[in-house]
Amino acid sequence: HREGPVLAARGLSRSFQGIQAVGDMSLSLGRGELLGLIGPNGAGKTTMFNMLAGSLAPDSGRIEVMGQDVTGEGAERRLSRGLGRTFQIPRPFPQMTVLENVLCGAQDQSGEKVMSAFFRPAQSRKDEARATEKARHLIDFLLLSHLIEQPASVLSGGQRKLLELARILMADPKVVLLDEPAAGVNPTLLEQIMERVVELNARGVSILLIEHNMEMITRLCSRVVVMALGRELAQGAPADVIRDPAVVRAYLGDA
Ligand code: ATP
Question: Taking the C-alpha atoms of 157, 165, 151 and 136 in order, what is their torsion angle to the nearest 10 degrees?
Fold first, then answer.
């Protein structure tokens, strides 16, 4: 499957109480691609992420990771296959240090431990040392070295996003779904986050990026998919897509 997409969704649909959040969405992420997913509030982007990551079952449709059907699998199994995701609002364990948070699993929004597939009690002191070394390297890569022994509660929103990314990278994912890494982040940190995302992609990780920050989308992505009302509205180069009258209308309708 070296040529095929690393992540493919076909005909995904999902309703909540009879209201369709996502309808017949297909999406394909190529090997090494950094693909943007945009759309007005309520377009269904997060619902797509939840289905792709395995934390929400689709009503219909099929999801493949590296050519394998994973539709019936949960988030932990998908993470072990190489698909990791971040959340819009990361929830690190506040009393644990940055290092401990990266070494251990963490909670999703509902408080369930869904992303801890990589965390197993160390088999030996050697394993423990290796895991700690890897965590230190990732914390350094994500610019948090100076905070490594600090409790996660002292981190800013942007730093929590970096911490969450470090935690996910412990599993060596091949595909990462990033949910609004720029939201609520100060301009200096935003610049650094963009740089880290580009570097991660350059290291061979394929990335699907939900982002409202269009500067980030246009700078990082060569292709973007636009969702509105649960469906694909357009896709193409960011510069073309943002001029598309249907896309402009969808965003204005949201205002
Ligand atoms: P935003 O940019 O604001 O994060 P989004 O594009 O991620 O929006 P979703 O969060 O996927 O959109 O929401 C799509 C629709 O599905 C919305 O109308 C939302 O209210 C609805 N929805 C999502 N999750 C649930 C749920 N668990 N129960 C009921 N309705 C839901």
Answer: -140
